[in-house]
């Protein structure tokens, strides 16, 4: 059982909300507010989402997820105000660079609400409306990332700061894309060239898990939400102000530029 009350989780979440609004990294949370378990981190994460949406008139526009490992749950909300599809994109930088991850994004076209019956892969497939190229924007809100635990980062939405959604791609091809060859260039300079591999070997597998995980907690996915399911090639650091072109060979190409917040 968690040692956290709702009030403690909300106090911790408010510190993280304030930090994110100010775009200023800070220390790990005080010990009495710092999550020690995945469940405590999820309590703070949920309180964060409630406070953020209330204070900024925002909503949960999507999720990031991966299939869980033995002791880690990879899940975090992405807020509607941070989802963009038109360049330039304003982002908080790290050492004058924007940190991104190349992914695929799945738009939900039909609600997958809480229910008693588990969701099957076929149920989730039928709810997917479109598939797009996408870049997750990354920013750690802890001043010393090397001192954080997984629970610290889970509480603060797994370093997500937003999402850039690129062009729509063929859904059938994308669903089978366990690997993708990339050619990424920023102002003509190579950022990454070579094969990327999905961490779960299939980009829809984490989405199947997410739908069932949320259902089991009395929650669900809503039509219009967009889901990303893991980076194919780690984190890329892109110089602020540059124009980035990323070819996902066999799927499509996206182009975007970033401004510093």
TrEMBL record:
Stored SUPFAM superfamilies: FAH
InterPro entries linked: Fumarylacetoacetase-like_C, Fumarylacetoacetase_C_sf, Hydratase-Decarb/MhpD_sf
Domain Fumarylacetoacetase-like C-terminal: 80-256
Pfam families assigned to the protein according to its UniProt record, in alphabetical order: FAA_hydrolase (PF01557)
GO cellular component: cytoplasm
Key words of the record: Lyase
GO molecular function: 2-oxopent-4-enoate hydratase activity
Protein name: Hydratase
């Amino acid at each position: 059982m968690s040692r956290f009350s709702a009030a403690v989780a909300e106090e911790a979440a408010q510190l993280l909300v304030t930090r994110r609004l100010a775009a200023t990294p800070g220390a790990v949370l005080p010990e009495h507010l710092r999550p020690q378990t995945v469940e405590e981190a999820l309590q703070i994460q949920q309180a964060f989402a409630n406070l953020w949406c209330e204070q900024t008139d925002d909503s949960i526009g999507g999720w990031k997820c991966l299939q869980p490992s033995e002791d880690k749950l990879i899940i975090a909300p992405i807020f509607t105000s941070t989802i963009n599809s038109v360049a330039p994109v304003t982002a908080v930088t790290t050492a004058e660079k924007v940190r991104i991850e190349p992914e695929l994004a799945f738009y939900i076209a039909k609600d997958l609400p809480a229910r008693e019956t588990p969701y099957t892969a076929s149920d989730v497939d039928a709810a997917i409306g479109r598939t797009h190229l996408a870049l997750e924007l990354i920013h750690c809100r802890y001043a010393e990332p090397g001192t954080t635990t997984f629970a610290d980062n889970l509480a603060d939405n797994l370093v997500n700061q937003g999402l850039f959604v690129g062009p729509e791609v063929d859904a059938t091809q994308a669903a089978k894309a366990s690997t993708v060859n990339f050619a990424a260039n920023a102002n003509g300079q190579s950022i990454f060239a070579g094969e990327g591999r999905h961490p779960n070997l299939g980009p829809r597998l984490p989405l199947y898990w997410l739908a069932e995980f949320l259902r089991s907690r009395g929650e669900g996915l809503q039509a219009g939400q967009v889901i990303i399911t893991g980076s194919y090639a780690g984190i890329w650091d892109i110089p602020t102000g540059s124009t980035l072109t990323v070819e996902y060979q066999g799927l499509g190409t996206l182009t975007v530029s970033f401004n510093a917040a």
